[in-house]
Design a protein that fits this description.
The protein is mainly α. The protein is built from three helices and no strands.
Length: 125
């Protein structure tokens, strides 16, 4: 299998699965800051201009898949009020915001760039 959920979840480079794709430590005002290329294998983190446009759609889909069933469950099974349900959903969104923002970029990057176990030999290609 060419896809590593662990590397994607930990925001590691898809090509070598070792380098970080986001600048650490997290700057809360610029949460999407990425180095120009992976420090380990030189994989460019933005292969082309506007590369992460598709990550927006992934983020939208993932958010919908999480929030819609949860909202329906709280409204119709637990029978909470609409106001309380929306407050809980709002809090969930605040807690998930950073992980979703970075996670969707990481997922998109991992879907497009393949793992290369011999990345040392193919460096700068
Ligand atoms: Zn790398």
């Amino acid at each position: 299998m060419n896809f590593s959920f662990k590397a994607m979840w930990q925001n590691k480079c898809p090509r070598c699965r070792k380098g970080d794709i986001f600048i650490k430590p997290l700057d809360i005002l610029n949460p999407l800051d990425m180095p120009k290329e992976c420090a380990v294998c030189s994989q460019p983190t933005e292969p082309e201009p506007g590369f992460y446009y598709g990550a927006m759609f992934l983020s939208y889909g993932i958010t919908s898949l999480i929030l819609l069933p949860t909202t329906l469950f709280l409204l119709f099974y637990v029978k909470l009020s609409l106001t309380l349900t929306f407050m809980i959903m709002g809090m969930m969104m605040v807690m998930m915001f950073l992980k979703l923002l970075r996670g969707s970029r990481s997922l998109y990057f991992h879907l497009v760039v393949r793992y290369d176990e011999n990345f040392e030999q193919h460096k700068n290609k």
